[in-house]
Amino acid sequence: MIVSFLVLTLLGVGSVLTYQLPNGGKIWALLVAGSNDYSNYRHQADVCHAYQLLHSNGIPDENIIVMMYDDIAYSNENPTPGVIVNYPNGTNVYQGVPKDYTGKAVTPEVFLNVLKGNADAVKNIGTGRVLESGPNDHLFINFVDHGAPGLLAFPDSELYADTLEQTLREVARNKRFAKMVLYVEACESGSMFDDILTDTLNIFVTTAADPLESSYACYFDEYRQTYLGDLFSVSWMEDSEKENLLRESLHHQYEAVRHRVNTSHVEEYGNLDIGALHISDFLGFHMNGLPNAAMPAVPKVQGSVNNRNVQVALLQKKLEASTTPKDRYAIKFEIHKLLKLRHHLESVVKNIALKVVGGDEGLVYPLVSHRQRLTRDIFQCYKSNPYTLGQLFVFVNLCRNQGGNEKSILAAIDGICLAKPMVEGII
């Protein structure tokens, strides 16, 4: 086990604790919110909160890189411009957050190049900063967004499990870290690592959900009319703010979060021996090395919502808060339209499956009811819509059913999609 140590520097009457790893190692962090749009407020709120946690724990800003679309703080829908909170009555977590890569720069390619330390590849993009880590350093990677079997979503594209695994191997081979920890918040996030990530790379991963289930949003805010956080994310951060990180291990935090998150199965992957290390080895620690006594009590989570159903839930909350018949009618119409579009999308997917199996309804049922992991991009039609992510398992099953023959599947996709109108907007 790596033993960390402290250096105490006296400054006047006060004292500052500086955290160091063995052999001059440093802690580096890469924080990524992969979504945009105010309805996904919680993702950027999670990442901003993560930055504040690391910053208050003594990790210098030059060692923290943040990727987020940055369209939430000053959104027309945000009643508190310039303010983002991550839990009810919380403090502003947006203030001071570095904006290394924003807007269209939030892509899988930029993320992977930052992780690899490939400065040439991100030259003239955002701040151009990358992880300048070495063989004695610890990396903390936090990704928050939507997901699907075998992929993590970015605003305009996706990161696939095989691509991430290859990059992790490359970073390990190039000795760019001693130990790495990834915390991943996304639906089916376990599918990015289950039976994929080897335990020989000195990488420890915790995911919000197993390979087959959704993660959950929480903390609905009546004033802001949105969900402030994701249950897995707020749980590990709130645990970090109340525990002594010099003593609490990664595995202890995993168990604490697993018990609090009762809506999905929080999982751990990779080299589980790293779970015995103290959290301070990756997140730093509060200046006094003890839980922050000034932190408010952890709010009780009520009404957590499947991340795929957030858009419907937001409209239902809006309906409950409406006060005029005209507003209620308009919102009900919007809900009806949204549900109709979802039904339309599900119908398209089922028709593709029917076309592939020659119209045999008996074969289609297991295809649309049994989930497997997706490992490649075979669904272009409607892919720009987040609700589509919940349908991708059907195409995985089609691949398995057809023995890997993608020609018939792609022909069916083209045939059905060309005859159907595209669904626009978030459903």
UniProtKB/TrEMBL annotation:
The active site is at H146, C187 (nucleophile). CDD domains: legumain_C. GO terms for biological process: proteolysis involved in protein catabolic process; vacuolar protein processing. Its EC number is 3.4.22.34. One of its GO terms (cellular component) is vacuole. Pfam families: Peptidase_C13. It catalyses: Hydrolysis of proteins and small molecule substrates at -Asn-|-Xaa- bonds. Residues 1-18 form the signal peptide. Coiled coil: none annotated. GO terms for molecular function: cysteine-type endopeptidase activity. Keywords: Hydrolase, Protease, Signal, Thiol protease. Belongs to the peptidase C13 family. This is legumain. It comes from Timema tahoe.
